[in-house]
Amino acid sequence: MRVMVLGVRGIPNVEGGVETHAQQLYTRLAQSGCDVEVMVRAPFVKSRAKWFGPVRLRRLWSPRTTGLEAFVHSVLGVFYAGFRRPDLLHIHAIGPAIVTPIARLFGLRVVVTNHGPDYERDKWGSFARWVLRQGESMGSRHANACIAISQVIAERMRSQYGRECDLIRNGAVAARHLSQTDELERHGLEDGKYFLQVSRIVPEKRQLDLIDAYARARPEGWKLVLVGGLDGGNYSRRVEAAARQCGAILTGFKKGTALEQLFSHAGAFVLPSSHEGLPIVILEALSYGLPVLASAIPANLEIGLGETNYFPAGDIDALAIHLQRLAAAPQDETTRKARQRWVAEKFDWDRIAAETLSVYQRVLEGRRQLLGQRPY
Q1: 187-209, pLDDT tens digit by residue?
Q2: Each residue of 300-332: pLDDT tens digit?
Q3: Number of structural domains, the chain?
Q4: Chain-wide mean pLDDT for the chain?
């Protein structure tokens, strides 16, 4: 089965939930026998990168301009797919899904995964929001099959577009707990004595809320660590200024061993976001056995943590109180291992890959039946 993938900035180790999803999913599908080619965006992947393990990478040009990057890459990608003629084109996210009708006109079989209503992100203006809504509509109405990564998304697709989706959630990878601490020493951190957030530095991740709550809580001996790339924009500058004022640590984008160390030795993980699809980063934190605190938005609630793991989104006073509670709560290895077992059983990437492959096979079987019904 030849599968081409569109809507991914790049793999491996490119910042973003869709990118993490693609890295885990397509490695497994390629290992199961699929011929997988992922169309990646040139600014995010080096020119010499042709393969990631068994997954073929195809670099296509795109401008590194917010609002144009995904659209231009998607248009180029769908024409490339129309030329290459894969058995199936898998489009990720509602922005790139705007080219779904073009793919169908080319005679391609298309699966679209909806990772969440990106038009709700704070960074977009009215025109960009309109384009994203059109992408969601085009993908929902014209794809041969749709996948939703959460029940919330699946229900919205049913109510807004009358489209039934396969519910296939994100997964968690077994953590590699590292004993070394050179990354901690670089930032002056103490083992088990810092709150960690790992995400892009963008308004919907609400880093400013977390910094404000940390400044109010001031738990003795604890620090706040924010991992994510700064783009030099207005929001990034505001986060930098607020972090300097209260002593929070901005590490920039981290991957590999450095990121694994920060997860391995954190005292707790916090995600106060206002918008998510189904956050892989929370699953990753749980795979390290970390206590997690998240905003009580539908996507975070769907993970199914306990009531004390959530706070009202945007309520900084409540967030500060929860930070104080986390800092005072004793941690033990038994609880840590219980979290790891729970997330491994509930969010298994091998099962997710098998479910995705089942969708592919159903779509292609439908095509074979249709061809078989045609008179010759």
Answers
A1: 999 999 999 999 999 999 999 99
A2: 999 999 999 999 999 999 999 999 999 999 888
A3: 2
A4: 94
pLDDT tens string 87-107 = 999 999 999 999 999 999 999
Is 338 found in the same domain as 353?
Answer: no
- At 36 the three-state DSSP class reads strand
- Domain with 83 in it: 2-171+348-373
* Bridge partners, 249 (sequence order): 225
CATH of the domain at 39: 3.40.50.2000
Same domain for 151 and 209, yes or no, is: no
Q: What is the pLDDT of residue 376?
A: 29
- Asked if residue 96 has a cis previous peptide bond (ω within 30° of 0), the answer is no
Smallest CA-to-CA distance from 266 within 222, 305, 302 is with 222
**314/324 same-domain check:** yes
**Cα–Cα dist 20/3, whole Å:** 18
**Does 156 lie in the same domain as 106?**
yes
CA distances from 278 to 117, 251, 363 (A): 11, 24, 25
- HSE (side-chain half, CA atoms, 13 Å) at 348: 9
- Distance of alpha carbon 288 from alpha carbon 278, whole angstroms: 18
Block residue for tokens 């045609």:
374
Distance spanning both ends of the chain, measured CA to CA: 25
Q: What is the DSSP letter of 175?
A: P
Residue 153 placed within a domain: yes
Residue among 186, 330, 205 nearest 261 (CA): 186
Residue 177 inside a domain? The answer is no
Are 264 and 362 in a shared domain?
no
